[in-house]
Amino acid sequence: MECENCVVRLDSNYTYQILKGGVNAGQGKWDIGTAIDIPAYLLHIENGPGYVVPHSRKIIDYISRINCCIKGCETNIADGFSGGIVRIDSTRSHIGQPTIFIKRLKGDTIIYYPKYFDHPWIKDKISVGDQITKLEKTMNFRILKKNGDSAILNYEIPDCNACK
Question: Is the pTM of this model over 0.70?
C-alpha cells in the first residue's frame, strides 16, 4: 500500500490502526522496548497483514506526543493501596512490564500496572508473598519481604503534563 500521509494511531490496549484519509487501512499490535546498542526507547510495530504493510523499510516522519502517557498518569500517582502480592503476571504486560495483583486487607484484589511510559517499575524488588504499600499522591512504595526484610522505594513524581 502506498501511503505518504498515513497516520498510525496507537491505542491504549496495545493495538494500532493505520489511517489513510481517516479510514482504517490496517491494524496490528505495538509495544515499546529498548535495544542494547541504542540508549533510547523504541516503538515496535508488528507488520500486520501483508497486503497492508509489505516487507520493506518503513519511515515514520514524526510521532505526535498526544496521549503518550497511555492513560491514567494522575490517577496512578493519586492512588494509594496496601496489601499482599498474590500474583505477578508477565502475560498481561503494559509497555513490557508485568501486572501485579495485590490482595488488600479488605479482602478484595486490585490490579496495579504502569499506566504511563516512565512509570517506575519495581519488579526486581518484589515477589509473590511480599506486602506492598503505595502512599497516596506519591510514587513511594514500602515493601515488606516475606523473609522479614523491608525496603522503601522513593521515586520522583513524573510530570504528567510533559507528554500531553
Answer: no
User: Per DSSP, what are the bridge partners of residue 42?
Assistant: 33
Q: Tell me, yes or no, whether 81 and 122 share the same domain.
A: yes
138/96 same-domain check = yes
Q: Which amino acid is at 47?
A: N
Q: What is the mean pLDDT of residues 53-63?
A: 56
Residue 100's DSSP bridge partners are 88, 112
pLDDT recorded at residue 31 = 74
Distances (CA, A) of 125 to 57, 70, 131, 132, 157: 39, 24, 12, 11, 19
Residue 69 burial class via C-beta count within 10 angstroms: exposed 0-12, middle 13-18, buried 19 and up: buried
Looking at 19, 45, 68, the residue that finishes a domain is 68
Length of the chain: 164
Name the residue range of residue 89's domain. Answer: 73-157
- 18 and 61 housed in the same domain: yes
